[in-house]
Amino acid sequence: MMLPRWGFPSSVQLDRTRSFFEKIHDMSEDHDLSHIEKYRGEIDRIDTELLKMLNRRAECALSIGKIKKRNNLPVFVPEREQEVLRKLGAENSGPFTEDSVRKVFQEIFAQMKALEEALEPSGSCEG
User: Fold this and answer.
1) Cα separation of 16 and 98, whole Å?
2) Which of 20, 32, 67, 104 could be cross-linked to 95 through a Cys-Cys bond (beta carbons 3.0 to 4.6 Å apart)?
3) Is residue 55 a part of any domain in this protein?
């Protein structure tokens, strides 16, 4: 089993990040301040989609939590969290470093665990 490397970025991560910033730099040469609102609008749309996806994820976590509760299983399974973090680290194409991805998802995991532990809201992960 390969353990995740959370520390210094690998050369592949640095290359991906460098490539991303080179693209951004190239794009910025022909963009001026008038494009800020366009990008902010795109960010607003992305934020709305992220919120929808996080709420969908929370519904699934609640469904899993109910199953765990009925079967007297623990809410937190560290092996599952590590598996997800390894997978996401491998899928990350930047500009986030693996460490940044890990930190973001650890916070998401913490919020999902809090929902599962409270387990009062009804939720189902269907469709």
Assistant:
1) 11
2) 20
3) yes
